[in-house]
Amino acid sequence: MKNYDFIVLGAGLAGLSFGYKMSKAGYSVLLLEKEDTVGGLSRTFEHDGFKFDLCAHRFHSSNKDLLDEVLRLPGIKWNEYSQKSRIFMFDKYLKYPFELQNLLRAMPITESFVSGLSFGYNLLKKQLIKKRIVSYKDWFEFYFGHKLYTIMCLPYTSKIWKIDPSLLSADWAGQRFQGVKIKELMKKIMRKISKLDFSSYSLEDEELAPDGGKFYYPETGIQELPDSLAKLILTSNSEIKTNIVLNKINDQNKEVCYKENGSVNFAKANKALINTIPLHTFYNLCTRKNKDIEKCLNELKYMDIVFVYLFLNKKNISNDHWLYFSDKDIIFNRSVEFRNWSKKMVRDDKTAICLDITCYEGDGVWKMKDEDIAERSINDAIKVRLISKSDVFDSKVIRLKNAYPFYDLGYKEKLLNVVNFFEKTGSTYCLGRTGIFNYNNADNSIEVGFELARKLIDGKRSTMFGYVSKYISY
Question: Among the four residues 19, 295, 321, 344, which has the most C-beta atoms within 10 Å?
Answer without folding.
Answer: 19
